[in-house]
Amino acid sequence: MSSILSISDVSKTFVSTRALDDVSFTVGPSEVHALVGHNGSGKSTLIKVLSGFHQPDADSGAFVVDGTEVPYGDPEACHRAGLRFIHQELGLLDSLSVLENLRLGDTYETGPGWRIRWRRERSRAREILSIVGLDLDPEILVEELTPIERTQVAVARALQSESAVRVLVLDEPTATLPSSEVDRLFELIRRTIAQGVGIVYVSHRLEEIHAISDRVTVLREGRIAGTGPSREFDNDRLVQLIVGDTAEETPPIAAREATRSRDAGEVLAFEGVTAGELAGASFSVQSGEIVGMAGLAGSGVHDVAAVLLGSLELEDGTVRVQGEAIQRPEPQGLRARGVAVLPSARDLKGIGEMSIRENLTLSDLKPITKGISLDLGGERREVRDLIKRFDIRPPEPEKPLAELSGGNKQKVAVAKWLRVDPDLLVLDEPTQGVDVGAKAEILDLVSDAAAQGVAAVLCSSDLDDLAAICSRVLIVRGGQIATELTGDRITREAITEECYRSAAAAA
Amino acid sequence: MNRSEPVPEGSGGNDDGQGGSGGFLGWFRRDEGETRQASFLERYGGVVLLALMIVIFTITLPGKFLTYDNLIGIVGNQTIGGIVALGLLLPLAAGVFDISIGGVMTVAIVLVTWLFQTTGGDIPIPAAILITLIAGLCAGVINGLLVVKAKVDPFIATIGTSSVFVGISQLIANGETIARDIPSAFTSIGRTEIFDVPLTTVYLIVLAIGVWYLLDHTPFGRKVYATGAGREAARLSGVPTNRIIFTTFLISALFATIAAVVYAARLGSGPPNTGASYLLPAYASAFLGSTMIKPGRFNVPGLIVALFIVAVGINGLQLYGIPFWVVETYQGLALIVAVVLARSTSNKSNRRAKQKQQQAGATA
């Protein structure tokens, strides 16, 4: 089969892990080749090899575009060969006009006195935009465009160059698009391939793969798990390929029964909550249980914490805490009602400039306040106990938080919130970027707290975390709770499978 | 110590944590991400410098510098500027600028003297002072609302209100110095001496202790520092950051008003547009003060030392007979040196932290 791009037997070894192992990949003219795989499957490594960002191992095979060999690890050569990449964030500057974005990093056509020939620039921009079927004033600012128009501008920018564009790589192009606009994206893709350009289409959404791609390749642990014409792969087969051999299931953990020493009752409830990516999500959490939440990027799983932190506005629905509806959730008000929420962003978990001591007590200064002033001696004593109890290292209360390792920062954050004796602890990605030892400690802290009746919600993309300590796992798909897994069904494989199952298939 | 993973987030990620702390102050504080236990010289370098200056001036200016009158004069000259700077510490510690303190001071000076002039000196002195203080608080409320509710950048908002306040003072005074019917009981507030110590110096000491207590020993102060060090992170920890910032604007306006009343009382009249000249010295001593005693934090002891480094320096230079233009130049240089100093010490510690990480990376 004739192909415009082909790489063969590519391997890429990082210090200890083999991110790509003998991977071959081709794209034909006017072909849409879908690339799927879970986080860490090697998808992004492969794309970075194609863009010249990564230099693969020496024993890798040839990298050929249009019959000419392209040197590895040379971004400029990749660009000259006609490869273009559009990432999820599109790389547009909101405060500049469409025209300026098209010319970003490029020169303008100038006349005498270095004057930019704006009229000629405008007509050129219109011409380029018409390639992607966009008819708008090039002077308009990008921030005024709809999501699909932004994608169109990004594609137009990628296609505009003088030299012929051969292959366009779209990395998760639908992650930021509303579902109603996906059809317009497909139209754009068909328009693009009509010019003979080949497309590499990366997406988590399996239904899109059937709708638009000609061929599909599934990567798993750096290897090709399956490849062939898309029509030969139904959803179940794709999921099976993504997840892999289901024989080696994680052993179910015995103690999954929720311990309920406090009054059993509903601590938190979302009723038809619409905010950010969430679209009518409903669930409830009882005291003493650890509820896991999992979902793909864009599913809305992280917006649960964002709503509670007041970072996302509640568009519709009700959030109930201890049975009481909360109009505008925000950290201070929720703390008073016994809810503690740990954000996922690393630098928002604590204040780097302040000491461990000051960070530990910041979320509630009342216990260390006497009259109108702080009881600094009492604070020091309490902090010493906390550092010991949560094994924070180094055990130096005056050390600035910024100097701690990621795992210890996270332990400070957990300790800070368990100190206020909450009824519910919501943790968003508590083990991200944390080494194995600290990870186990953090999960232990959460299960210990649950054993004493504290309810916990654990949103994590580390499925082993969820499998290890959760009494049930809610799968978030399309902004709603799609399924609930309980008991023995909480395995890494089952969670992955449910995350990928298309909304259509579930209905 | 757990060093098995590199910790790059402290330096790189800090940018986001400062969300909204605004232009220059953000730039100034960003490098403080890698804080460290400060060395003795970093903490007390300013005190040593001040002591050195005193020794040198005492030796080179015999009979001129080290006299009671000169020393008490230095202190007395710092009271009004000191009170303004003490109030300014709060918004700065909370990570926001208040440029309007000069404007607030101007309008308050004019208002308190105008109240006497327009009533022919009949208004009770406590009433005049109370009205002025309330007006000053209103100015703080306007600043606070603009920043917290209307989300205007603090720097821009307070530059704007400052100009409006000066305009209002011109409306009241019609551009003239108000000097009629100022009761002597009022001027005694600024002129009385107790055992040869001016009463105004006592005000400064009392207010300094008050602000020190507020910042270092109350939950409010802790929350102010948290807000300044990382507004969004503080909010997510349950600190009501908007309320905190609003309150710091009230306090800085209140202190500028107190300084205005003391100024008017000492002078016995209300000249137009006086406040502006207090703006830069307040910033100079606040920033210089943030490099000492508790480096990296706007703190009262540091401010007091900084105040006298600037004051003693100017006094000594004047006694040498150096021309008048040196004063402004010296103050401006002090501000610039203070900020450069603050950045270079933190840069040094950044390098130190990075080296540590690299060593850790090599052993891991």
Describe the structure.
The complex is a heterodimer of chains A (507) and B (364). Chain A is of the alpha/beta class and 507 residues long. Chain A is built from 17 helices and 22 strands. Chain A has two domains: 5-243, Rossmann fold (3-Layer(aba) Sandwich), CATH 3.40.50.300; 266-506, 3-Layer(aba) Sandwich (Rossmann fold). Mean pLDDT of chain A is 86; it is low at 247-262. Chain B is mainly alpha-helical and 364 residues long. Chain B has one domain: Orthogonal Bundle (ABC transporter involved in vitamin B12 uptake, BtuC). Chain B has 16 helices and two strands. Chain B has a two-stranded antiparallel ribbon. In chain B, strand 1 (193-194) and strand 2 form a beta hairpin. In chain B, helix 6 (101-118) packs antiparallel against helix 7 (125-148), helix 6 runs parallel beside helix 8 and helix 14 packs across helix 15 (300-319). The two termini of chain B are 12 Å apart. The A-B interface holds A 309-310, 330-332, 335, 341, 343, 345-354, 358-359, 361-366, 369, 372-374, 376, 393-394, 398-400, 402-408, 416, 433, 435, 437-438 and B 1-5, 7, 9-10, 13-14, 16-17, 29, 32-37, 213, 217-219, 222-223, 225-226, 229-230, 232-240, 296, 353.
Short description:
Chain A is of the alpha/beta class and 507 residues long.
Q: What's the layout of helices and strands?
A:
The complex is a heterodimer of chains A (507) and B (364).
Chain A (H helix, E strand, L loop, with lengths): L4 E9 L4 E10 L4 E5 L6 H8 L12 E3 L2 E2 L5 H6 L2 E4 L11 H5 L15 H14 L15 H13 L7 E5 L10 H12 L4 E5 L3 H7 L2 E6 L2 E7 L5 H9 L22 E10 L2 E9 L3 E5 L8 H6 L7 E6 L2 E3 L4 H6 L2 E4 L13 H7 L6 E2 L2 E2 L1 H14 L16 H13 L5 E5 L7 H16 L3 E5 L3 H7 L2 E6 L2 E7 L5 H9 L2 H4 L1
Parallel strand pairs in A: 3-8, 3-9, 6-7, 7-8, 13-20, 13-21, 16-19, 19-20
Antiparallel strand pairs in A: 1-2, 1-4, 4-5, 9-10, 11-12, 11-14, 14-15, 17-18, 21-22
Helix pairs in contact in A: 8-16, 11-12, 11-13, 13-14
Chain B lengths: L8 H4 L1 H4 L5 H8 L9 H21 L7 H26 L7 H18 L6 H24 L5 H20 L10 H8 L1 E2 L2 E2 H19 L1 H11 L1 H6 L4 H27 L8 H14 L10 H20 L6 H38 L1
Antiparallel strand pairs in B: 1-2
Helix pairs in contact in B: 4-15, 5-10, 5-11, 5-13, 5-14, 5-15, 6-7, 6-8, 6-13, 6-14, 7-8, 7-13, 9-13, 10-11, 11-13, 14-15, 14-16, 15-16
